[in-house]
Amino acid sequence: MVFRRGYRMVRWTYARLFQAAAGFAARLRSLGIAKGDRVLLWGENSGEWIAAFLGCLFCGAIVVPMDAIADKAFARRVAQQAGARLVVASRNLASLDLPLGTIPLEDLGDGMDGVGDFSLPVFERTDPAEIVFTSGTTAEPRGVVLTHGNLLANLEPIEREIGRYRRYERLFHPLRFLDLLPLSHVFGQLLGIFLSQILGATSVFLDTLNPTEILRVVHQERVSVLVTVPRLIDSLKDQIERDLSGAGELDKFRRALEAAEGERFLKRWWRFRRIHSRLGWKFWAIISGGAALSAEAETFWGRLGYAVIQGYGLTETTSLVSLNHPFRLGRRSIGKALPGLEIKLTEDGEILVRGENVAQNYWKDAQLTPVLDEAGWFHTGDMGDRDPAGNYYFKGRRKNVIVTPEGLNIYPEDLEAELRKEPGVRDCVVVGLDRDGNAEPYAVLVLRDSSPDAAPGAAEIIRRANTRLAPFQQIRQWMVWPDNDFPRTPTQKPALPRIKQAAQDQLGAGGRPASASRLSPISDLLGRIGRGAAIAENGSQNLQLSSIERVELLSALEDRYQVDLSETEFTRAETVGDLKELLKQPAARGPVYHYPRWAQSWPIRIFRALALHLLARPAMLVWGCPRIRCRENLKGLNGPVLVIANHVAFFDPAYVWEALPARFRRRLAVAMDGELLASMRNPPAGTGFFKAIANRAAYGLLVSIYNVFPLPRRAGFRRSFAFAGDLVDRGWNVLVFPEGTRTRDGKTSPFRSGIGLLATRLNVPVVPVRLNGIFELKAAGKRWARPGQITVAVGSPMQFPQSEAPETVAQELERRVCEMAD
To answer: Are 649 and 778 part of one and the same domain?
Structure first.
């Protein structure tokens, strides 16, 4: 299991996972949790989440999973409805008053290891394993009771089918799944917990939905299969096209995409080899669930040479009813019925399901109510179709079908498919509204250009879409959504009740547009980082955010809208209105920073050791042999560590390197002025020929000898922090100068608050270092120093919890470094 915590990627083997799960099961038994007791599990995807889930099963407890983004009021109602005795929740989530209290999810990784006298209760297939509550936060919760038999009925046919391909799978082992679905949903559990164990695969979890970061992780973690929802698949497609547009290659790419229609796989793979290289050569498939994937996205990824596997299911069916075979894909279909399942269509096209994987009961007010009808069929409420080959096709939700006065059925999905063909439409929803006693389709559009000047163009979009629709399907009413995206559920589906209510409000108000601030999620995001939602009601009000809060808000906005925002422009935003304007604009192409992983390779490390010991170190000792103080503070400490120091001269890294023990200096990477490194690597226009060559040569030597990487001072530092996390994951120590610039008066400048963020989210010891005597020599204009005139003091290591405020951490680190002055 691989999951991100802060800027680190945490890696658990299956043995480690079993140890944690067994230890948690023992703790549950010590608390008096017995078979049949309910435990609420509330947190982000992580190894600890899976350990808690399995630990509950090991002791017979029933898991009540909860979305990480659920609000406290809804979580409390679910806990009360389920009669939960204990909650296991992430520390950043609100606590609930339950009989046995709360166990922090993060604690499951420490202090709970050990199998001991591990034993399992006696289980029947009819015993409940979990209760999944599927209603939204505005409705009274109703849980679906899933048994061990329900889970096994889905897994057993998949395991049998996998067995037929085991000998081929060995060629690609280990498989790696990047699961972007919440584990609180059954489909996320199926792919992230169970299927990966059947295959002996690695499950990778990510704490962001930012397309650029997803594409980077797919390559870096050598992901084989991406598991996600259609909304994110569309976002990744848009990101690839944005990147090609920025490089001036989009038109050429689209011509190649058209030419790839009907080509064989190997030819398509070769045609788009640059994209395959970007995503990694092991990446080959996308599994889509939770909603119907658009034909455009399916065609796009298919022509690139990737398998797009769609499935269909609901919580009541333990996530799967049908699934496309990875090697026998049915175009636009949701696949064939799983073995052991019966599917039939009613006269009006509703999908009915019967089989062991279908839940028997709902849990409501501590009472069990049946899921199935008298004949044992589950009425899904979804409309579908079937072709002669047995492939099923999703037509939409039955309750969303619009019935005209003539008795004709209009499926919103058909209208939405036509609207999405228009280049100006970023997303759309069609809802049925009552109008003078009749029902008619009402289109709600999110335009790519959401400025007020673009709104009149919606009429032309509707007109063109209507030319491709039957007369009874014509769209006569529409609105442009006033925000940059729809409100969404945890699985990224548009929140239809809120959208429909807004459309009804506008229709009742004579077509006046709904209030953007009332509908905007910006107020929710501001509230999450400590600002009141009232701020968003007034677009002219100042944001009044700290630098760290700006970082958090920027990340949250990128995840929410699945776009890349310009950090430079974002730092200039002063009001909520500025944020909304920024979201309307396409992503600006900022400066390109390169993060050289080649600098940590063995050949470069050998060259670095020779250069430092034979050239750099003798020169430094001749200039001024330093006196090292308090190095014993690092006795017994092993890397990786984060080293911080005051900044006096350009050769400061050499003195810090000299002060560290060999076990740290051998694997030390240095953060350096990102803007300076970028200008050295790619000299600006107008730079002389020979000077440009000299700059590039200096860049290569600097990176090779001192293993430097860029840390921009103005924008782009989030990617630098992520690279620092990657270095630490690979066992490297990181040196940062938190002042951001060299001192001009000999005094320590205030530490930038970003160092507090880095210190808390790297989760490694922080070693403070103080350089003394160098500024005095510079001020006196001296070129040489007596031995010992320059001193380097090494402080005691410090460590900070992730919950600590970054500003407080930065101030504490500054204080410790200042205290070490001579």
So the answer is: yes
